[in-house]
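Lecture 7 notes: from sequence to structure.

We start with a single chain of 314 residues. Read the sequence below before looking at the structure.
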Amino acid sequence: MKYPALMLAVAGEVWALERSKLEAITQFLLFKADGGMFGEDEIQARTAGARQGQRGGAAPDSSGGIGVLPIYGVMAQRMNLITHASGGTSMEQVAADFRTMLADPAIKAIILDIDSPGGTVSGTTELATEIYNSRGVKPIIAQVNSTAASGAYWIASQADEIAVTPSGQAGSIGVYTIHEDMSKALEKQGVKETIIKAGKYKMIAPESQPLSEEAHGIMQARVNESHAAFVKDVARGRGVAPATVTDRFGQGLMFGAQELVSRGMVDRVATLPQTLERFGVSVHPVATANTSPSRHFAEIRASLDDLHKHLRLR
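Now the structure, written as tokens:
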């Protein structure tokens, strides 16, 4: 298998992401790890949505003074192979664009246009806090258009107001990580891994061995800590007690538009055009810059090589 460090990094991350999306990403990475290759036309088709999401699909008339910030696809702290492959968003870039909009006197309000299954916990609470701390500078509206799951709802909850499109859904408040016991599979392949280490807790949960009770406890504590931060931030953003988030916000369940309103998880049901109309502006499509398929291929390949190199040096 190629890129074993990449696979271990994905397995070891704490996720605030819909499980089905992570499974799709994992299948893609396994395909690549086993030497699978996509043709340039297929890469172009798979990454087109990501490119549009990164540049923004629909934007308001600039004369309206409203900034629309797209948050589409899997959210990661920085752009990498996963976000390239799945049509994702770099939270680092979102933060930079948000600051630019916040500082622009021509922009009177900011709309977070969200369609995301969530992503990594890393970077999420920092972006959430930055958005929350910017309340009062100018109105910040989160538009669920049409999914804000897990980490995406974490971000949305920090806006002054949340609107959800009628067919939209949001929620999935919870986090998880995964340990894959590969010991039997390696044994069948005739592979026996010997770990030479220093430090009691270094390499405490290698995938080449069954998960020990002690390692399980340590991983559970990490997940609990991330979940507590998630609940605390949502409670802060929605102006409720943490107990209310635990009792009424689903504990991992997703809800449709009307149920979200009744539970106090969003403020209103409205489409993006309706939200923009409240500010007296209309929308028009923004052209996406043309990029050749060969350039897409080169970028994805370079991203994979760089990530593999980085993980190998850790």
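The two ends are 19 Å apart (CA to CA). Keep this in mind for problem set 3.
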